[in-house]
Specification:
The protein has 223 residues and is α+β, with helices and mostly antiparallel strands. The protein has six helices and six strands. It has helices at residues 2-19, 115-118, 122-136, 184-196, 202-211, 216-219, and strands spanning 55-56, 78-80, 83-85, 94-95, 146-149, 165-168. A two-stranded parallel sheet has the order 1-4. A hairpin with a 2-residue loop joins strand 2 (78-80) and strand 3 (83-85).
């Protein structure tokens, strides 16, 4: 009888101890190190470990076709120091797989030129420009607006990926009807020169231009 009493007491004591413990499901941990990573942590890292990853387009084609553009009115211009910038949702930029750091001398830095050999025809870009103008709600003179490669061809931008093309309005103070003339073009040329001279990497130049072309030179210490 006494042994039965002792056994019962032991069971009651064990139950009391268990109810005072914190319940933890099997296979889980309360450590903060095991918590799920933040959204987007598994994304591809951008060149140089900073900024955002840049999409890779189809590259140069023997025969280009008119590419579909973002829906009409879905894109909005931004302005920095009065200069027009692209909508990063509509025009995030795209690079050509045909241009790499290893083949610069045979592509964008080769003597005799590169861009004219990969540029789509005016027939294709003319149609795309009208569609893209509707995307951005651009209503100004088409003669004064450039159908611009965000990452220029001389920096290895994709020739005909819609993500790399946008209707760039004229600079503030531009004389109406005077044709295309903007401050982004000299920036692209300086970046191209720096890349071909080995002052900056191709990836760094591409990342700087998609981040903000108005600060690209200062960002890389070239201004």
């Amino acid at each position: 009888m006494r042994s039965t009493y002792r056994a019962a007491s032991t069971v009651v004591l064990a139950c009391l101890l268990l109810t005072s413990c914190k319940s933890v499901s099997l296979g889980t941990s309360t450590s903060s190190e095991s918590q799920s990573p933040v959204a987007g942590a598994s994304g591809t890292a951008a060149p140089g470990g900073s900024g955002r990853a840049i999409a890779v387009g189809a590259g140069p084609q023997k025969h280009y076709t008119v590419q579909q553009q973002p829906a009409a009115g879905s894109c909005q211009y931004r302005y920095e120091h009065g200069e027009p910038l692209e909508d990063p949702k509509c025009t995030p930029g795209a690079i050509s797989p045909a241009v790499t750091q290893a083949n610069l001398k045979s592509t964008i830095c080769r003597k005799g030129g590169y861009t004219s050999t990969v540029r789509p025809s005016a027939y294709v870009t003319g149609k795309e420009k009208k569609l893209n103008a509707a995307s951005y709600g651009y209503t100004g003179s088409m003669r004064d607006a450039e159908f611009d490669h965000l990452i220029s061809l001389q920096l290895g931008g994709d020739p005909n990926d819609y993500r790399n093309l946008w209707v760039e309005p004229a600079d503030p103070g531009h004389k109406k009807g005077a044709g295309v003339n903007n401050k982004k073009d000299p920036v692209e040329t300086k970046l191209h020169t720096a890349v071909c001279a080995g002052q900056v990497s191709l990836a760094a130049a591409q990342q700087a231009i998609v981040t903000d072309w108005t600060t690209a030179l200062s960002r890389l210490g070239l201004s």
